[in-house]
Amino acid sequence: MLRSAPRRFVDREPERGELVEQVSLARTQGEQGVFVLQGIGGVGKTALMLWCVRDLAPSFDLVLEISMGASAEAKTVEEILDVFLVQLEARVLPPTFDGKLAVYRAETARRDVLVVLDDVDSAESIEQLRPASPGGVVIATSRQRLEAFEFAEFTTVPLKELSEQHGIELLSQGLDPINDAEDERALAKIAKLTGCLPLALTIAGAQLRARRHDRPSALLARLESAQDFLAEFKVDHDRKLEFVYEASYQTLQPWEQMLYRRLGLFPGRQFPAWAASMLLGEGAPVSDTVLALSRATLVGQLADGRYEMHAIIHRHAQRHANEDEHPADVRKLCRGLAEAYLDFAAGRELVLSSRFHFGSRFDGSLAPAYAGEDSYRRAVADLETEMPNLRRVVSMAAEEGFADLTWELAEAVANFLFQRGRYADAVAVHLLGLAAARQVCQETGDVRPLVALHTELGKAYYSIHEHALAAEQFTSAAERIDQLGDAAAAVPVLAKTLVWQGLVHRRLEQYETAVEHLERSARLVADPAFPAGLRLREERLLDMNGAPILAEAGRVAEAIEAAERAAAHFGADADRANHAKSLANLGEVLSEADDERAEEVLRSALMLEKELGIVDFEAYTGELLGRLLKRTGRAEEGNVVLARAAELYELLADQRAEALRADLRD
C-alpha cells in the first residue's frame, strides 16, 4: 500500500512542479522516465517523492512502492519482486530470480505502472525494476551520487537543505503563534544549528509540540549544551537522526571511515582537497576516498577543488573521531592542520608583502605561493576563501595549547586582515596570538612574539578607532623591543612602532607630537644598524604614512614631496595595497594644497582600491574625493561619491557613516 505524503511539508514547490511536469512530458512522448531524487540523509527526498506520487498516482493504472533500505538490511531485488508480484496479482510465482523477473515484465507490460523506490543504492536495481510498458515510470530516492545514474541517462534531481525561512516554517508548524522576540530568535538559532535539515527540524518540531509548556528557548539551551548533539534528536527513545548517518558510515570502507571521522576534527565544514590529504597522510588513496564520500553524499563537492560537509554530518563525524581515534592521534592531527594552515597563510603573505616578520616561516625557507603578474590576486583569493577556516584554526591551536603555532598564525594573517579591513577578525585573532606570545615568552624568554603581537593588536585597535587601547599596545611593543638584544631586528621594528604611535597622535590631532615620532623613526631608518636591504622600502613607507601628518602640521611642501616619492616607489612594487594607499595619501595632501592634480590622483587611487577590494581605503578615498568635488563647485557629483563612501562605512560599521549621512542631509 502506498504511504501517505507527510502532513508537515514546506518549500520544494519548484522541484515538485518540475518533476510532475517532466513525468507527464515523458509519458506524452511515450518514453520510460526514470527520476532519481538525490541528497544527504534527512534532506527530505522521501517527503518530496511521496507528494509527487500523490499528484501523479491518479493517472496510472497502478502504483508499486517500497523502501529498499540501502544499508546492511537492504532488500534484494528478488525480495522486492516477491512483494510486487503479489501486488500485481500475478497468477504464477516462479521459484527462480529470472522467472520472477520475466513474470514482472509481462505483468507491467500490460498497464501503466508507477514504480516508487525509496533509498536505492545502485542503478542496476532501478533497471531491473523498471516496468515494461512504454508509459511506465520510476521515481526513486538515493543517498548515493552515482555516475551510473548519469550513464543510464536517468534524470537526477539534487535536493539541498531548506532556506532559513523555510526551516523556521517547518520547525514551527503546529505550534501556537509565537509573538515573543526571544522565542523567534530561538527558533532561528535552532534552524541554524540543524543546518535547516528537514528531518532534524521535523524531530525538533515534534518535541516542541509534545512539550507545549516549554518555550523554544528551552530546547535551544538543551541543544547548545548537549554533549551528544545528535542524541537529542530522538522520537521517544528512537534516535532517528543518528541512525541515518550511522547506517551510511557502516557501509564505508576502512579508508573512507578514517577520512570521514577525521574530517570531524577539521574546524570548518568547508575544506580544501589538500586538507583531506593531510588528514589521511602520505600514501593514502586520497582522491578515491574523497570521491567515495562524495558518492555517498556525506560530502558535497564545491568549485575549485573544495568540499563541504553538512553541519549535522560534521557533528556525526566529529563524534566518531572522539570515540574511535586515540587522543594522541587527535592531538597530532590537530597540530598537523595548524602547521599546514601556517604554511598556507605564510606562503600567501610572502606574495602580498615583503614586510618584516618574526615568524619561522619567513626565514627564507618557505617560497611565496605564487609568482608573476596574477600572483597578488590569486593570493588574496586564496586567503579570502580560507579565512573562516584560518580563524577557526587559530582558535583550535590556542585551545590545544599550541602557543608556538598560535602566535605565528596570528602574525601570518595580520597583513591580510589589515589590508582587507577585517578589523573585528584582527582583534579576535591577535588577542589569541598575544596570549600565546606571552606563554612562549614565559617558557623560552623569547620576546619576539610579544613585539609582533602587541604591534598587530595595536594596529587592529587603531583601525577601529580605539586610540587608547592602540597606544597601550604600541607602548608595550616599544618596551619589549629594548629586550630583543638584536639590533638588526630591534631597529626596524622600533622604527615601525614609532610610525604607528605617530599615526595615533595624528588621530588625536596632536600633529607636532606625531611629527616628532616620524622624525625619530626616520633617524632609526638612517642608522647604520638598520638592515640595508630594508632601508629603501622603509623610507618610502615613512613618506607614505608621514605625508598627511606633515600636511596637517603645516609642512605642505614637504608632505607633497614625500607622498610623490612613496607613490613612485610603490607604483613599481609588487605591493599593490601600498600602491593604492600611497596614491590616496598623495591625493589627500594635494587636495590640502588645492593642487589641481588632486582629483586625478584620488580617482586613480579609488579605481585601484575597488579593484583590490580594499573597502576601508575605498571609503576614505571616496570621502576625500567627494569633499573635493563639492569644494570645487560640483556638489551633485560630490554628493554621489559621498553617499557611496557612507555606504562603505556602514558596511564596515564605521562611525564615520553617520557623520557623512548628516553632511548629505544638510
Automatic annotation (TrEMBL):
Alphabetical list of Pfam families matching this protein: NB-ARC
Cleaved signal peptide residues: none
Start and end residues of each NB-ARC domain: 25-172
Protein name: NB-ARC domain-containing protein
Taxonomic lineage from the root: Bacteria, Bacillati, Actinomycetota, Actinomycetes, Pseudonocardiales
